[in-house]
Amino acid sequence: MEKTEGRLALRYFWEALEATREEGVLVGMDRFTEIGMAALGTAYLAMKEDLVRKAKAEVDRFVDLFQSASLGMVIWQLEDPSDLGSFRLVTANPAAARSGGEILIEAAGRHLRDLTPEIPPYVALWAETLADRAPRSWTAAVGDDPEARRHFDVRCFALRENYLGVIFEDVTERLRMTERLDHHVRELERSNRELDDFAYVTSHDLKSPLRDVRNLVSWIVEDVGDALPPSSAQHLRLVNDRVRRMEQLLDDLLEFSRVGRVAEEPRTFTIREVLESVLTLDPPRPGFSVTFEGEDVTICTPRLPFEKVLRNLVGNAIKHHDRPNGRVEVSAALEGERVRVRVADDGPGIRREFHERVFRMFQTLRPRDEVEGSGVGLAIVKKSVEVFGGQVHVESAGRGAAVVFTWPLRWARTGA
Amino acid sequence: MSGRTVSVLLVEDNVIEQEAVRRAFKREHIGNPIITAVDGIEALALLRGGKGGVEALPRPYLILLDLNMPRMNGLEFLTELRADPELRDSIVFVLTTSRSDEDRVASYNLNVAGYIVKSDVGAGFVRLLGLLDHYWRIVEFP
After folding, report:
1. CA spacing 20 to 30 A to A142: which of A55, A86, A266, B110?
2. SS3 of B38, please?
3. Are residues A148 and A10 in the same domain?
4. A212 and B14 in contact by Cβ < 8 A?
5. Which residues pair with B91 in a beta bridge?
6. B15 touches chain A (CB under 8 A)
7. CB count, 10 Å around CB of A402?
């Protein structure tokens, strides 16, 4: 008798649970009666042998699921709605026993008032759930010792008649994991901020002595320039040159550290407009042409970082060209919610093994005495593009190289 | 204007920057006297005088102020200066390497006559001196 009742209750339980699952959250309970009645009607009211056998097989399947589920599942029956102590434990699955104690298994058939000297406060929620048949969820912490305390996500829902299903999951590990993750994220943010501050402070503070060196050199030249042997004059020119290079490096470093501190509001503009303003500010050197091809896509994003990326790429294409004449082609195309911008040149090309390397900090492919550059430009491009959620890569096989990057059509600030 | 020569109080901790200003004055044949202080505290002492029978810096004067300095930095000095009824009308130009927006806004909030970023030593300095030279020719000093 006990066993049959347990199985019937289980059946109710599964119908209810599946209904809530189908509906996504906790709103499927209304459908329970309908589904449950139909299924049970088939299973228990049909007298034909094969139907009973089928129904039994189905119930067995439910029992297996119940027994092996990782969620703790308990079914109670409220015998007297005016007495919370009259909740009777119908059945509990092994998972419930694992986190709730063996007592749950042994206590099947016994009443709450006999199981605990004091009725826990959440039992009132059970009764309310049975009364209004609306599922309830809450989280519960079990244990007084904060170190050993376990946390549970609990959900209860009314089954047929006065049966109540309670499912719960031990989320202690997940909570601890989340806490650890939060901690790591905070740490990472802090160290990133520190790194930015460090880059900012160093690049600013290092510039001051450099200015001093430049001043001192210019005074030596001013005071005794004519009297200097040619080699010393040349050395002083090199000192100046290296100082300038260092200053450029520091400026670029500073800029790199500031990428991602987006203060600017998004603006609407087209790719062609930005290219035109890049070319007005930095006209290509004689012998070079920069043209725009393809769709003129309109985007809405902070303009300065986008313009900076395009300026760096067009500037690079010309700076690293190996011939006196060359062409740079900028093109744009829609790609879903993004624009794909391509800056292609007919320069010497970039060998495959360097396609990744060119985006790294301080990486240059030619000696700095040949092509002046700090090796930060493409690192800034990559960081900017990625800050805005895009991607960048190099395409080059043989002569000519193209840098392709994506940028969202509409950029919105996320997070706090 | 009063006809008295305007003196320049240069508040700057870096001796090389000090010399840069002095040399630039000399190169442009600007004879106005330059008095230097290495930080805000020394500058205030010079402006107020009194200690050890030292006279306060006679007017008219113009202050060229660096921002990053030990003990009392430029903005702290400006705050003190504007709170001092004797000195609050002083004309101050900030002369700094800082391009930070916060520094610029804070300086103008403390009523500086100009915020000048010393980016390049050469041409920029000459223009700055041209500005100062015109400034004290044209402007009536307090």
Report:
1. A86
2. coil
3. yes
4. yes
5. B62
6. no
7. 19
Contact B16 A214 (CB under 8 A): no
CA A279 to CA A282: how far, in whole Å? 5
With beta carbons under 8 A apart, name residues in chain B contacting A216. 16
> Looking at the structure, do residues A304 and A242 belong to the same domain, yes or no?
no
Longest dimension (CA), chain A: 121
- CA dist., res. A211 & res. A197, Å (int): 21
Q: Which positions in chain B touch A218 (Cβ < 8 Å)?
A: 121-122
pLDDT in single tens digits along all 416 residues of chain A: 445 666 666 677 666 666 555 443 333 333 444 455 455 555 555 545 566 667 677 777 777 777 777 778 888 888 888 888 888 888 888 877 777 665 666 777 888 888 777 888 888 888 888 888 888 888 888 777 777 788 888 888 888 788 888 888 888 888 889 989 999 999 988 888 887 777 777 777 788 888 889 889 988 988 887 888 999 989 999 998 888 888 888 888 777 877 777 667 888 999 999 999 999 888 888 999 999 988 888 999 988 889 999 999 999 899 888 889 999 999 999 988 899 999 999 988 888 888 888 887 777 766 666 666 667 788 889 989 998 889 999 998 888 999 999 999 988 766 43
Distance (Å, whole) CA B13 – CA A59 = 88
- Does one domain contain both A82 and A229? no
**Pair of tokens at residue A368:** 């700095």
Cβ(B113)–Cβ(B92) under 8 Å?
yes
Taking contacts as CB-CB distances below 8 angstroms, the residues of chain B near A211 are 16-17, 97, 118, 121
Chain-chain contact of A211 with B121 (C-beta, under 8 angstroms): yes
Statement to judge: residues A143 and A205 lie in one domain:
no
User: A244 and A279: one domain?
Assistant: no
Cβ-defined contact of B19 to A215 (cutoff 8 Å): yes
Residue where a domain terminates, one of A258, A283, A309: A258
> Any residues with CB less than 8 A from the CB of A231 and at least 6 apart, and which?
none
Q: Phi first, then psi: what are they for B8, rounded to 5°? A: -110, 125
Q: Domain-by-domain residue ranges, chain B? A: 28-96+103-118
- CATH class held by domain B28-96+103-118: alpha beta
Whether residues A93 and A219 fall in one domain: no
- Domain, as residue range, for A272: 264-416
Given A226, A258, A290, the domain boundary residue is A258
Instruction: Tell whether A179 and A246 lie within a shared domain.
Output: yes
CA distance A241 to chain B (A): 14
Residues A312 and A185 in one domain: no
**Tally of domains within chain A:** 3
Does ipTM top 0.90? Answer: no
Top residue of B26, B121, B125, B126 to mutate, by most chain A CBs within 10 Å, is B121
Which CATH number covers residue A64?
Answer: 3.30.450.20
CATH number at residue A414: 3.30.565.10
